[in-house]
Amino acid sequence: MQPNTLHTGSVAERIGFLNDRYRNHAAQAVLEHALNDSDVGNIAMVSSFGAESVVLLHMLSVIDRNIPVLFIDTQMLFEETLAYQTEVSQKLGLTDVRVIRAAPAAVAAHDPDGLLHKSDTDACCNIRKVVPLENALSKFDAWITGRKRFQGSTRAALDFFENEEDRRIKINPLAHWTPQDVQDYIINNRLPRHPLVAQGYPSIGCAPCTSRVAPGEDPRAGRWRDQDKEECGIHFVNGKIVRGPLPTVEDEPEMNTIVTDAGFAADEWTHGFVTPDTLGGGGAAAVAVDLASDADPAVLAGRLDGIDLIRVDFPSFADGRGFTLARRLRLMGFNGRLRAKGHVIADQYAMARRSGFDEVEISPELAKRQPQDQWLARANWQSHDYLNRLRGTA
Amino acid sequence: MSRRFTPKVVTANHLLEGDAVWLTSDNAWTRTMSEAQFLDDEDLANERLAYALTQEADVVSPYLADAQLGENGPEPTHFRETFRTRGPSNYAHGKQVEVA
Amino acid sequence: MYNYNEFDKAFLDERVEQFSAQVARRIDGSLTEDEFRPLRLMNGLYLQLHAYMLRVAIPYGSLDAAKMRQLAYIAERFDKGYGHFTTRQNIQYNWPKLPDVPAILRALADVGMHAIQTSGNTIRNVTSDHFAGAAADELLDPRPFAELIRQWSTDHPEFQFLPRKFKVAITGSPNDRAVVKAHDIGLRMVEKDGEVGFEVIVGGGLGRTPIVGKVIRDFLPQEDLLPYLESVVSVYNLLGRRDNKYKARIKITVMENGLDTYRELVEQEFIGRRALFNGVDQALLDEIHARFRRPDLAQGRSVEAFDQAYGADPVFRSWADTNLAAHKQGDHAIVTVSIKAHGETPGDASAEQMRVLADLAEEFGYDELRISHEQNVILPHIHKADLPAVHARLAAVGLATANVGLISDIIACPGMDYCALATARSIPIAQQIAERFDELKLEHEVGPLKLKISGCINACGHHHVGHIGILGLDRAGVENYQITLGGDGTETAAIGERTGPGFPADEIVSAVERLVKAYLEHRSSVEETFLETYRRLGMAPFKEALYGEVKERHAA
To answer: What pLDDT is recorded for position A27?
Structure first.
């Protein structure tokens, strides 16, 4: 059912209702309710028929196989992807898979030889992917994506329902899923896998810009290899399409590095993270909370004793809110572990430590570009500190 | 919404010296604007800028600047770009004395 | 004079090493330009139109002969033989090369100087009254507090990546010579029940949205200074907008949230922050106070040499009338050395001039020099008997221009001759106006008149608070200059008002001349200043002088 008349109020108001209503629902339930909720409106799913896409497609087919599925054919895809698309659509009985392609005139005008990707991958993505998708979505009130919280720091607070520039609702039923959840679901439901996964392509995009990755290498390393690019164009930040590198990447597993005064180490925390919203009343053995950079730490007032670790997000190294958040948490009496996570650079290590953080969590990319010695250079953060001298704590 | 494309050159500042440089057709950076590659096609201009953006080891903050074709090659059309080819007006410093 | 102790020196050494490594890491690719930019800015290094530019801090504008000589050395060794004194009491070098910058910072550190936090979204070099410690009207020398703030804000771990830059100014006099109401935080010393504390002003600023700051706390005890500042800035760090750079300054944060709300948040934060300071800062402040003791000024020396020269030499008399200010001790004077010779670049001093200033400070001035936000150099303690000699030595190197406070004592930003942000040039306009009024021989008759020029909306030339302000803009690819009138940067702060359409470069000098002639025509007496006449009569007569008779219009 697609009620067109019942949803009222602005997109922002409806999002507020929807997130409250489904805060504690599982992915399938979210999807089910979203498809039936009058507050959502006209809805479509967008799928790349990539390595993990089959999960959501399967869920959709179980609930309503007539919902439109938008598949963007950039005309640069692997043969295997096109074959997989046909196979999955048939097997799941999807009745309304719409293949979206760029207008031939646009391609003729901007990329007649199909070589634009060699000189300007952004422009190529724009013509073949971003613009066609935006056109296709303009007919819908809402769309379903496979984005997940584990995929990166700015997605740490990813909600089931997001507001896209007050125009559309974006639904992320898998927001809380881990990589293991995805694998388990595919196995348990005996779903067909993309043929290229077995050949060493854990993340699959257009043929010219995707290569194999070695075992243990970042699964996204094969995308736009040797290019200063990590993301396609289909991401909206603060309601705006954002192109080029984002700190978050699809399908990226947790392989971050923890930096302390002793240098680099793997993350030994295995108990997962909750948000202030999902933080329970206590009793759990080990509790870690993710705090967004725009969060008010006052939401944790009175609950700090039950928390072992707080992880504060740094969406960009130029955004210094996290330093004051750390100091404020310490002023509130938090004595547990305090971790800065995201885009914190080696040159900020002393600032992080002096503001009250115990450690920093960085991406594999950053750990590679700024190796351990650049961080250890500031392990002496306790010396030459004007502020602690003035505070009498030096 | 169609906006007329005006010819461009790719320009930036040199990483070590800090002075103005322009991109040539053979992927080098020149201190003389007239030696720059003249870009009268929008797609080509974007392609050259995209290339320049990958040259962080040599230059800082490349951008497309308006240009016109003069007798000896590309020339600036805006006074800001004219100053960049010359130097300040209060002293005989910069390119007006350093570049022949 | 505060000289760096072992702690300060060790800190500076470490910073020089850090920045040297950062430059190397930028060159080897460990740091992207995006990551390097804030780090170089934090160390005062900009990339401008023709070259890098290094902005060196002169904290609260105070320096001694050794420092001035080192500035001269750097100008010769690494630059083109001169430096530019700025409206924020800094000095800028316009031509350094990136690989040389670590060596320049090393040379600065050798004399206890640095370029730390002269740029970037952080707490900037603290500015103060350039007559501090000498002025007759002073309640308390503000510099020890400025030094305390410098130490607190330097490398403050929370405040290196604020939403936007953050400027603090402090004055110890009722006559505000530090433009405190145009700063993110302005501190004005006030007395209450026999105790001296601070009036705290917040959210002032010029730029795109000029706002006169408002009082957030009418009396702050001295010992609460650091925790209170920390509260104001930490609230701003979390609350300030990061989505739009033009709305990121604290003036907008205060405006959008309301002063009362902002004050409440600060007071709430203050409770926790107060506990972070246990009094050690006050002990350190006592040590700092001791280092700012006024020099033991000569007592009982005759001032006859001064009187004689004043009577006999009209050139000296003219200079003494404009360039001297009252000192706490009557037989001394505060000398303002004009760096505004007619036709020269406002604020530019050659290495030779810097050395002469250093020599004079050492020989006659108790080794003290100041840089003013009006881009001049101050010798704060000169015995009157020495003034003729000082004047002669200054005249020999082109530093004896008698124009302080007059129309040719122009504040001008570097404008599009150097600055990457500028929309038009400032320097040639300043040069031409000064030359015009020199030819007219009018400026002494005109009297006090502050003319300030900015080459873009960011208002580094303080045009908003000029009695006559000039703003250079790019109008369809041509330089165009807008005029504002009635601005005031003192304790009676006001933002200037636009006269109307701007003028092209070749008409702006004549336009200013017409304004000044209109003032001479309309002033009620020789005593009434330009600003007073403007305040009495308003815009109309000046508008008429600029644009001709306003034509009658028949309204519908």
So the answer is: 79
pLDDT digits (tens, 9 = 90+) for A59-94: 888 888 889 999 998 888 888 888 899 889 888 889
Q: C378: closest CA among C364, C357, C363?
A: C357
**Predicted confidence (pLDDT) at residue A242 exceeds the cutoff of 70:** no
Question: Which one of B15, B56, B80 has the shortest CB-CB distance to C98?
Answer: B15
A126 phi and psi angles, rounded to 5 deg: -60, -50
Give the architecture (CATH level 2) of C135-291.
2-Layer Sandwich (3.30)
Same fold, C6-110 and C411-547: no
Query: What's the pLDDT tens digit per position in A111-123?
Result: 878 888 877 888 8
The CATH code for residues A257-390 is 3.20.20.70
What amino acid positions of A are annotated as catalytic residues? Answer: 232
Residue A226 contacts B where some CB pair is shorter than 8 Å: no
Segment A141-156 shows an average pLDDT of 72
Q: Which of C29, C51, C428 comes nearest B90 by C-beta?
A: C428
- Domain A11-242 = CATH 3.40.50.300: no
Q: Which two tokens stand for residue C553?
A: 């219009």
Residue A107 forms contact with B (CB below 8 Å): no
Chain length of chain C? 556
| Residues C484, C433: Cα–Cα separation, whole Å | 16
Alpha-carbon distance A385 to nearest alpha carbon in chain C (angstroms): 8
Residue A233 has pLDDT above 60, yes or no: no
**Strands across the sheet containing A142-144:** A97-100, A69-72, A43-47, A142-144, A168-171, A161-164
What is the domain partition of chain A in residue ranges? 11-242, 257-390
Contacting residues of A for C30, CB less than 8 Å apart? 369-370, 374
pLDDT, position C303: 97
Q: Note the pLDDT tens digit of each residue in C64-82.
A: 999 999 999 999 999 999 9
C212 Cβ neighbours under 8 A, 6+ residues apart: C181, C182, C204, C493, C494, C495
Residue range A150-157: mean pLDDT, rounded:
56
C303-326, pLDDT tens digit by residue? 999 999 999 999 999 999 999 999
Q: Do B50 and A228 touch (CB under 8 A)?
A: no
Q: Can you tell me the ipTM of this complex?
A: 0.95
Query: Do the Cβ atoms of C206 and C464 come closer than 8 Å?
Result: yes
Cβ-defined contact of B57 to C345 (cutoff 8 Å):
no
Q: Where are the beta strands (DSSP E) in C183-340?
A: 185-192, 195-202, 214-220, 324-326, 332-337
A193 CA to chain B: closest CA distance, Å? 36
pLDDT higher at A51 or C505: C505
Distance from CA of B50 to the nearest CA of A (A): 6
Q: Tell me which of A294, A313, A347, A365 to substitute to probe the interface with C (most C C-beta atoms closer than 10 Å).
A: A347
Domain ranges of chain C: 6-110, 135-291, 305-396, 411-547
